[in-house]
Amino acid sequence: MSESAMSAAAEAPGLAADSHTAAAEMHAQDSESDSEESEMAEAPARDSAAEIPVTSNGEDVKHMMTGGPTLKETRIVSSSYGSSSEGIIEAEPYRGGLKNTQSGPVVITDDLSKNIALEKLEQVKKWSISTYKCTRQVLSEKLGRGSRTVDLELESQIEILRDTKKKYENLLRLARQMATQFYQVVQTQRQLGDAFGELSVKSPELHEEFGYNAETQKLLCKNGETLLGAINFFIASVNTLVNKTIEDTLIAVKYYENARIEYDAYRTDLEELNLGPRDAVTIPKIEQSQLQFQIHKEKFDKLRGSVSVKLKFLDENKIKVMHNQLLLFHNAVSAYFAGNQQQLEQVLKQFHIKLKAPGSDGPSWLEEQ
User: φ, ψ for residue 126 (rounded to 5)?
Assistant: First the structure.
């Protein structure tokens, strides 16, 4: 081997080491340049983000929130070493389900609900004030401290009506009791007549005697059913008079008495205000109290007149109804116990009373009235 070859072989390891060192230095320089490029690429983005303008309606902020890239929308595009697009971050437009909405505040108003609520509140307020005044008036009357408006003639008529109703209710109770008991008597007479008739057939030696009694009981049963129809008609008429006609009038009387309490309550309130001083604060209250007093006075006068008319017509109607019903009751009972079958049937025809035929499915005499 020549000396030149040996010297070249000896220098080869040194050249290899130098080449490795140079390659490492070039790689380090490339890495530093890549990091500098990435920092330069990110700097404008940070500056633009820092310079986002904020407007009054939030349009730009909402645009950045809805149109700008998010972490889930960005992707890193990689390419071969040395490419000009290496390390660039690209953003794709958002394709989700968010919808653009109109800007500006949205005010929802419900005027109807507010009006209804205010009306109810005002009604509750008026009811509370009226209830308080009426309660105070009632308590003051019971304790003997307050005055009340009294119509002596009307009050006496109302008391007579209430007493009349109690007496008619007792009469109605007794008539129903008599009808129940007499119905049992009629049923017993029917069963007794059937027993007599059966024995008349099975006892030839007493055929005529059992036969007479059977016919008598059947006739009494028939007349008893006629009398029972008259009594039930009397009960129905008195019941209508007591529980409908008189009761309707007493309901009107109740409204009248409530109006009287309200009238006296507002009258007392107005009198107390008039006794006090008159200044800029009390004069509007007095005027308002005077208005309420006038309203309740008109209501009270109207109901008082209505009750007077109802009591007058009720008295006339009561006399007419009871005259006919008492005549029916007297004639029917007298004819039954006198054994006058024709007169008893004539009484029913006179008052247009129809009896239900035995075993018929049609409406009863009470249902036809």
Answer: -65, -40
